[in-house]
Structures are given as structure tokens and as C-alpha cells.
Amino acid sequence: MKRHVAEMITRDPEKFAHHDRVFKNNPVVMQGMGLAPLVVLATSGRNAVMLAVAVALLLTPSRMLACLLSRLCPLRDERPAPEELEKKLLPRAFVYLPLLVVEPLLTYRFGRVQETMHKAVSKGLRITLGYALILLLLGCVREWLALGSVFGIPLSRSVLPMAGMPAGGFIVLGVVCAIWRALARERQKYLKNEARGYLAVHPQENRKEAE
Q1: Distance between CA atoms of residues 116 and 118, nearest Å
Q2: CB-based burial label for 208 (10 Å; 0-12, 13-18, 19+)
Q3: 121-137, pLDDT tens digit by residue?
Q4: CA-CA distance, 103 to 98, in Å (whole number)?
Q5: Model-level pTM?
Q6: 124 bridge partner residues
């Protein structure tokens, strides 16, 4: 573990976890984004792969294009007035229309942010990876529960046939999110203890890495 990482974890562990869009701050598990495709369409491993590809083709490129448009129609402050939002966000709306198949909340959040191209690409890729991971996990679990197979390969008998329906999808997603959140909390505690231990063992270490 590098010193500047250890210092960041001990100083503000929530901020450190916020940047991890794959596990500790997964947009689905922690913020409830993009639930509709998960519970309705992610009923098998193959469906999940197709959805993940669709999200990858839409989310990051749309965020990049929105970043370019935001430079043409910049917001003056972080909390703009409703009149300014209506005027400045209208050109970006055409970029976000394809994202409505994922989640309207994603469209809303992306439309209000003012970010650099590097940050748009970085965050877009991390969110895409996190969303694709939960898609694949949920799709495979639901297929196994409903049909007893994963990617069409028989593994066992059907365990919970209703897992293939939207109602069952909500139940399975709730269980997966509960387990995921518990593991994320334990991982965060582990990193915090590791960071404190590292700083205690190396209190006078040269800070060139952090600089």
C-alpha cells in the first residue's frame, strides 16, 4: 500500500470508497440505479452479457459527448437556477435519450455534472464495469435458480422458478445487494485497519510517492 493511499483512507474513508464504482460504491448496490434492466431483462447469463455490451456502448461514449457539450453550454455554478438548467441542459438532452433504456436517474445525474474529459472517461468506464459486474452476477444467479443452468449449461434442478420473473428478480437482487453491502463494509474496515497499521509502522517514511 502506498503512503498517499493510506493517508487518504485514514483521513476520509468515505471519499476513498466513493471513487470505487465497481465494488465499494457500485451504482446499483449503493445508489439503486439502473434497476429496471436488472429485474426485467437480466434473467440469464446470455441476456446479462448482451445488456452489459449495450451499456458499454452507450454509457461512456454518451458521457464523453456530454462533456464536450457542457463546454459549449457551461453552467455558471454547482447549484444553478432552474431557468439556467432548462436553457443549458436542453442541448445535452439529445445525448441522454439512449440512456433512458438504462435508467432515467443516470440521465439526470450526468446532465448536471461539469467535468473534464479525463474524468468523464474514467468515471464512465468504472460505472460501466460496476454495472456490468452486477448484471452478470444477477443474470447467472437468476438463471441457475430458475432453470438450474448457467449460460445454458445444466448444473442442477430448478431451485426457485419465479426467479425468472420480475418479482423474483427484485427478491434475488435484494439478497445480492444485502450480501454485497456487507462484504463492502468488511472490505472498507479491513482497508482502514491496514492503512492505520501501515502509517504506524512507517511514521517517518519519505513522502516522495505522495508528491
Answers
A1: 5
A2: exposed
A3: 888 888 889 889 999 99
A4: 10
A5: 0.74
A6: none
